[in-house]
Amino acid sequence: MTIDTNRRDFLLRSCSSLTAVWLSTHWPALLSAATHARAAAQASAPTKLQFFTPEQAKEIDAITARIIPTDETPGAREAGVSYFIDRALMTFAIDDQKVYREGFPEMQARTHELFPTLDKFSAATPEQQDEILHSFDEQAAGNRRPYRPRAAAQSFFDTVRLHTIVAFLLDPDAGGDPNGVGWKVIDRERQHMFQPPFGYYDKNYAGWQPVSPSDKAKS
Amino acid sequence: MTPEQPKYKTSDEVDFVVVGSGAAGGIIAKELSENGFRVVVLEQGPYLTEADFTHNEIKVLNEDLLTNHPKLQPNTFRKTPNEKAKAQRALVYGRLVGGTSVHFTANFWRLHEIDFVERTKLGPIAGTGFVDWPITYADLEPYYTKVEWEIGVSGLAGASPFDPPRSKPFPMPPLPTKASGVIFEQAARKLGWNPFPAPMAILSQPRPGRSACINCGFCLAFGCEVGAKSSSLASAIRMAEKTGRCEIRPNSYVHRIELDANGRATGAAYFDAQRNVHLQKAKAVVISANGAETPRLLLLSANKQFPNGLANSSGLVGKYLMLNSGAVAVGVFDQPLNDYKGFAVSRILHDFYELDPHKVGFYGGGGIDARFDITPIGFANGGLPPGTPSWGKEFKHTLAHNFTRTMEVMSHGTSLSVESNSFSLDPELKDAWGLPALRMTYKDHPDDMKLATWLNARALELLDAAGAQKKWSFPIEEQQFAVHLLGTCRMGNDPKTSVINADHRTHDVKNLFLCDGSSLVTSGRGQPTMTIEALAFRAADRIRGLAKRGELTA
Predict the structure, then answer these.
(1) Which domains, from first to last, does chain B contain?
(2) What is the interface pTM, i.e. ipTM, of the complex?
(3) Please, which of A74, A126, B366, B382 could form a disulfide with A144 given CB 3.0 to 4.6 Å?
C-alpha cells in the first residue's frame, strides 16, 4: 500500500465527502517536492533540477550527507534530501533562494581557505568536510522550541541544516519523503491512528486507582 | 461541511454581531442563536474544516496555516514602557473559524475557588493590580459543567483531592494513559504527591458528527482531522449553524466599532477578503477577538467621545496583561515511551496549586503535567539535550535514540497583574491593512520568575524519582512571546478600575460586551481556555437576560 493511499483512506474515513475534492485540488506543493525527491533519488537517469545547477546539486548533496550522514542506518542521501531542497526552493522555501545563491561561493571560499588545494566542498574528505561545516556552525545546540521567535536572518549553513531536517523528518504522508526514511530512523511508526498501550511503560499499567489511606500513610 | 446558513445583509440590523469565532465567540454565538436571536459572527481568518488540516509541520508551524501571520500582522515588543519597541513576533493565536481553540493542546482545568478571592486571603501585593474577581467559583460552576457536557471534556471527577466542588461528573472517561503518564504517576506517588488523569477537551467517546480521539499525536498547534478536539469549530460553531439564525462570515477583519450620537454601538466595520469595507449593523456588539485583538479593536475605535479608545474611561484597556508563568523539564528513559502517540497530556498534579507565600517566599501556585507535545522536526530542533551537536553522526544517533524515549514535565503557574504589562497600538508599525500594529509590553513580575523556578525544581525532582537516564530543563527566562492572552479588559464592579462589569458589559457602552481571555481578573494556574468558555456561557446567559428584559435597546 502506498503512503498516499494510507493518508487518503484515513482522511476519507474521518471527514466529509468534500475531502476527496480537496485532496485532488489542494494537495500541498510539498507533496510534489517530496515525490519528486524520491523519484529522483531512485532514478538511474539524471533528474531535471529546478533551482540548482548540477554542480550546485552535487555540493548540496555533499553538505546534507554530512548533516545527516549515512552509517548503519540511512541518511539524508537515501531520503533524497538534496532533491527535496531543490524543489522546495521553487515552492515553499522560495524566499531562501538568495541565501543559497550567496552561500555557494562562500562555501567554496571557506573550503579553499581551510584546504588550499581544494576548490569544492564535495571534493573534500568527510573529515575535511566536517571541519569546514564546523567553521560555519554558529547555531548553539538545543533549546529551541517550535513557538520561540526565530532569528530573521539565518546563515547559509543553518538554512541548509534546517532544510535537511525538514526534508528528513516531515510527515511522509503530508509532504515528506514518501518512503519515510527519516521516520524509520527515529522509530516513528508511520500511522495516524494508534491504540494503547503505546510504549514500554504503559504496557502493564492497571489503570488509575485512588491512593488508599494506608498507602498514603506510608508515603 | 458548512450547513446552510442565513445570509444577512450588512444593512440588516441583526440582534448581535459577534467579533471572533474562537473559544468564547463560538459559544456566545451558539447560545444567543439557540435562544432565538439573529447573530452574525465576523471572523478575520478563513473557514477551514477538518479536511483542510494537515500534519505538515512546515505549513502549520512555519507558514502559519492556522495562525496570525507575522508578515500580514507584524507586531513589536518591549519590556518596559520606557523602551522603544522593536519589531519582533510577540504572540500567536488561531486565525481561522474556531480561533485558538482549533490549535490548542486542550488542557481543560477549572479554576479553583481560591483563584476568585485570593486578594482577600493574601492582601495586596505591591506594584501589582492584584484584586478579587466580582464573581466567585460558585457563580461559574454551572457554566464549567455546561462546557464539559456540551462542548465535550473527558476526565475523572473526584480524582484530585484539590479539585473544587462540581455539580456533575465528567460526561466521558479520561483519555488513555500514556507511558509518560504512567512514569509521572508512579514517580509523583513516590514523592507523596497526588497525580490524576488530566481533564482534556478531547473526546474519549464519539459524539454525533465527531470521532473519539484516534491518538494521532498531532495536537499542539495542529487542527484535529477527526473533530475529536473540542474546538469551537468542532462543537459550538456547528451548533450555532444548526439554528439557522447564525451566519459565520469568515475573512472579515473588524477594525472599528461604530457608535451613534447617543453613545450606543451600531455595528462593526470590517474589511472583507478583497479589503472592501462594510459595516454590519446590529442591536448589540460582543467582542471576543482574544486578549490581544479585543483591546486593540477598542483602541482602534477611539472617537470624540472616547479619545483614548472605546470603553476606555478607566484607561485600563489593554493593561494588566498576564501570560501565565511556566517551565519545561525534559527526561530521557531507558525504554521507548512512544509518547508521540496519543495526545499531549494524560496526567497532571495540583499539589502546588496554592503555595503559602510565607513558606516559599513568593506569591503564586501552579500545576505540573506529563507531556510530549513536540512533533518530529520540532523535536530535532529543540528536543535534544543541551550540548548535543546540531548535525552529524552524534546528532543523528541522539535523535534516533531519544525521539521515542523522551517526555516533558511542564509546569504552569500564575502571573501577577502588572499595569505596565500590556497590548497597545504601535505608533509606527502598521499591518497589511494599514492599521497600527499590536505592541506588547511585558516583564514578568519577580514572583512569577521565582514560582517558575520553584515548580521546575519539583519537575526535576519528579524526573529523578522516575529514574530518568538523563534530565535537563529549558532556561527560565523573562517571557517575550505570548500564547495565553489574559486580563487586558478586566472584569470588575468599579468603572474606574475595570473595563467590563460582571455581566461582561462595558461600563461605558451599554450595548457593547467583551468576553474572552481579556475578561480574566487573575491568571489562574495556567490553562485558561476552560474558564474562558465557562465565562462565555455565563456571559451569554447574562446578555440574554438583559435582552429579554429590553435593557439592550433602552
Answers:
(1) 1-104+109-152+231-315+487-554 (3.50.50.60), 154-217+325-413+443-481 (3.30.410)
(2) 0.93
(3) B382
